[in-house]
């Protein structure tokens, strides 16, 4: 077990998160992986802990606005499990690792988790990082549940990868239907970050679904992650006179885009996916008001279990979670725990089979049932609207 791992076994707040102290960690050879696969926790002695790794971003862009919330959600779930007797007679221990907000960091952290002999891994937040973790876990035959990574390719990695959040295919279709039915949009412009697979995939799904619903895409413009001047793209958008502008990107650059759009006199509503968030107001300022985005959960959403988790989070940390990350991380651990209990075993393969059979699990972010691709089906999407520079719950949409 790497000496830099800091376990969590009974507290809602994790300790100092393990940073990538093994930055030069070599790729695991096939022999090492096979040896680790054979070290199954199924023969744990009485009192030995079941170890679950939680891999999220404590540092890097992916941690902005959400740092520690993922870890706190996972730690709260572990605390709840231990308060109810643990899993199959064993206490549960959480091994938190920082993925440094990069796919390379995520791959290193997943290797460390596998080397530590964890039973399973939960993690995120972005799809590039989750895919890197899923690839490592697939080779090591270790169950992996991502809490908040929406690109379809994450679970296409293989049968050991699962997710508790909706996919980009699902949210793209829902956002297109929302634009058509709730915003009465007949035409749409789309701004795409060509350097980001999340943006490209979500844009493609939205455009297909919007067109299939009778709408028309009148303008598509592209930009890159490091761009700061969007005037050319926005001028083309303005000339196309759309009813709505879809920007499937992240909060930092999306805030700059809507701010420049407002300065250019573009007043139609902008719409974003789950890459947006409350922190978008820090760059967009008052220009964010009147715009909409999708998210996985909100305290005002009609998900009963989620309200109980919020109360526990408030008691532990003195504040409400402002993003869905904590609740999704809680769900990821609890879905895994439910599968372990139904499997009645600490054998990884039996746990994987039980995960695949998950049906109607009452998660904090809605009911979770996995389809054949190990993605949840039928989850409601929360729509947020900026008002007075604040992200406010608008509606739940399915």
Question: How would you describe what is shown here?
Answer:
The chain has 398 residues and is of the alpha/beta class. The protein folds into two domains: 30-166 and 303-377, 3-Layer(aba) Sandwich (Rossmann fold); 169-295, Response regulator (Rossmann fold, 3-Layer(aba) Sandwich), CATH 3.40.50.2300. 39% of the residues lie in helices and 18% in strands. The chain contains 13 helices and 14 strands. The strands form three sheets. Strands 7-6-8-9-10-13-14 form a seven-stranded mixed sheet, with helices on both faces. Strands 2-1-3-4-5 form a five-stranded parallel sheet, sandwiched between helices. Strands 11-12 form a two-stranded antiparallel sheet. Helix 2 (69-83) links the parallel strand 1 (50-56) and strand 2 (92-98). Helix 12 (325-343) packs across helix 13. The chain is elongated and about 70 Å long.
């Amino acid at each position: 077990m790497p000496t830099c791992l800091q376990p969590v076994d009974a507290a809602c707040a994790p300790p100092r998160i393990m940073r990538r102290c093994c930055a030069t960690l070599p790729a695991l050879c096939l022999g090492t992986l096979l040896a680790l696969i054979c070290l199954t926790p199924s023969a744990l002695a009485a009192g030995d802990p079941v170890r679950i790794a939680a891999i999220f971003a404590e540092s890097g862009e992916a941690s902005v606005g959400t740092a520690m919330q993922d870890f706190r959600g996972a730690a709260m779930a572990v605390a709840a499990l231990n308060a109810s007797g643990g899993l199959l007679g064993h206490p549960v221990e959480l091994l938190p690792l920082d993925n440094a907000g990069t796919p390379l960091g995520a791959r290193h952290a997943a290797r460390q988790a596998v080397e530590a002999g964890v039973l399973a891994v939960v993690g995120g937040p972005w799809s590039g990082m989750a895919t890197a973790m899923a690839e490592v876990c697939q080779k090591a035959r270790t169950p992996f549940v991502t809490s908040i990574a929406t690109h379809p390719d994450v679970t296409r990695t293989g049968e050991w990868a699962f997710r508790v959040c909706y996919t980009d295919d699902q949210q793209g279709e829902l956002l297109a239907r929302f634009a058509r039915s709730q915003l009465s949009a007949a035409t749409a412009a789309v701004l795409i970050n060509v350097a980001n697979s999340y943006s490209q995939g979500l844009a493609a799904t939205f455009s297909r679904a919007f067109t299939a619903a009778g709408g028309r895409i009148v303008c598509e413009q592209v930009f890159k992650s490091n761009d700061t001047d969007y005037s050319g793209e926005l001028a083309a958008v303005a000339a196309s006179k759309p009813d709505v502008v879809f920007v499937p990107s992240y909060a930092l650059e999306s805030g700059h885009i809507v701010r420049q759009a407002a300065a250019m006199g573009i007043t139609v509503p902008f719409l974003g996916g789950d890459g947006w968030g409350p922190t978008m107001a820090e760059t967009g300022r008052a220009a964010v008001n009147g715009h909409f985005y999708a998210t996985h959960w909100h305290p005002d959403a009609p998900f009963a279990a989620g309200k109980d988790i919020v109360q526990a989070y408030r008691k532990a940390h003195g504040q409400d979670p402002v993003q869905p990350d904590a609740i999704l991380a809680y769900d990821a651990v609890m879905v895994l725990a439910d599968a372990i209990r139904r499997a009645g075993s600490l054998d990884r393969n039996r746990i994987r089979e039980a995960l695949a059979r998950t049906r109607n699990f009452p998660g904090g972010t809605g009911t979770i049932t996995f389809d054949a691709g190990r993605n949840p089906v039928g989850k409601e999407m929360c729509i947020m609207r900026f008002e007075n520079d604040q992200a406010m719950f608008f509606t739940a949409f399915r």
